[in-house]
Amino acid sequence: MTPHENPPPNGRKPPTSTYYNAFTLSYYDIHVLGHNMTQIWRCPTKSIQLPLFQKYFSPPEHTEARCWEHLDVGAGTGFFVAEALKSCLENRQSMRITLMDNNLSTLKKARRRIESVVGRLGELATVETVLHDVLDGDIPKSLEEGRYDVLTMFNLFHCLRTTAPEGKNGVFGMAARLLRGDGVLVGCTILPGREYQARGLAGLRVRYTLWLYNRVYKVFGNEGDTRAQLEEGLKAAFEEVEVEVVGSMMIFVARGPKRLRVEG
Predict the structure, then answer these.
(1) What is the spatial distance between Cα 8 and Cα 132, in angstroms, rounded to a whole number?
(2) Which of 121, 144, 220, 252 is most exposed by smallest CB count within 10 Å?
(3) Which residues pair with 255 in a beta bridge?
(4) Pairwise CA distance, residues 55 & 186, whole Å
């Protein structure tokens, strides 16, 4: 199925939409989710990030008899959704999984991977894809406000490159508009501050990697990111915000989208 598409304004294409192709995605899990997360950013995927994703992925037992809606923004290779699905195959709750990314290659790879697991659930789970850049501001027409139970943004924010006045914090507002009143936003992003880096040669390696990804490959855009700035954006969009830093990674969980209060 062709993904719903929202063309970038003025033909602008983010660097990540071209850098991540069939070749680079072939070693993404091993290099980025494996080596980098453990050795560089000190926030291992399998022991910290994946359990967090799984915690909010599957519907709670008291969920009413309706389709559980999950929106994953920044699909990557589909690793997190696919692994989370494997852990809840016994759950007979119907689910609709929507993947949003600005890169068609990642959407295709993630969808194939997830559908290989979805096949075990029969008609209980479906997968949709949306080609869209979250920095464009508008919500894609194919998405419905107030629809999603969970919205995940894992390893997305440090890849966003923008000079807009509202910066990246406008993305939190978009998330609040898409979530149900009892919905949850969960995610993590790399912070560049030296206070979050290891000392000595390990710290030098972190700074070199940040320079490489921000200035050479241009797939990062986090040189100006701070915990305070991102936390402020989260609190502007949500009633309840939990933030924790593990290694160089800021983990966040937000509930109570404030857009409901404004509309009410």
Answers:
(1) 8
(2) 144
(3) 184, 240
(4) 10
